[in-house]
Design a protein that fits this description.
The protein is α/β, with parallel strands linked by helices. It has a single domain, classed as Rossmann fold (3-Layer(aba) Sandwich). The chain is built from 7 helices and 6 strands. Helix 4 links the parallel strand 3 and strand 4. 38% of the residues are buried.
């Protein structure tokens, strides 16, 4: 009995897909799965947390997703000014100060895209915010490796837990 409970505890942090970066995500495969909307984390997913402009490969990937008909939305715990800048640069809407893993900002993005939860994927670099937040809503979750290894103190603490989760499922 204890083993079953333990497994269910850890599964809430397990992403549906784990990749090295955005370029490894097959937009065609997501289309086949019925995914129509993408909720993207900003810092260390689309752009390194200390960069002020998205790299060309990120711009290309987001553009390709939009051309394929995906609705794209940034949902980030970052401050409003930063999210607005990248939303404008990439031509997609965004929500700042999302307080992930709380569900309200993710739910708001899904509603604004006018899609069902099963038609949306969350893509982010953190198990404790992006994956857990998406899993709490039943959204398809994709974990990417962080773009920059240098991070804030509290993010580094979360990464220790993340390594335990990923080791548990043989993902690292």
């Amino acid at each position: 009995m204890k083993n079953v409970r333990n497994k269910s505890f850890w599964r809430r942090f397990l992403p549906n897909l784990y990749v090295n970066d955005l370029s490894e995500i097959s937009l065609e495969l997501l289309k086949e799965k019925g995914i129509k909307g993408l909720i993207l984390d900003l810092d260390n997913t689309l752009v390194a947390w200390n960069q002020h402009e998205p790299p060309p490969e990120t711009i290309s990937w987001v553009q390709k997703a939009k051309e394929m008909g995906f609705l794209v939305f940034i949902v980030s715990n970052a401050l409003e000014e930063r999210v607005q800048h990248f939303s404008w640069t990439l031509g997609v809407p965004g929500i700042s100060k999302a307080q992930k893993p709380r569900r309200s900002a993710l739910r708001s993005a899904v509603l604004r895209m006018n899609l069902s939860l099963s038609e949306v994927a969350v893509i982010g670099d953190q198990v404790l915010t992006d994956v857990w937040g998406g899993n709490r809503l039943g959204i398809y979750t994709i974990l990417v490796r962080p773009l920059n290894p240098k991070e804030f103190f509290f993010t580094r603490l979360g990464r220790m837990f993340e390594r335990m989760v990923l080791r548990r499922f043989s993902l690292r």
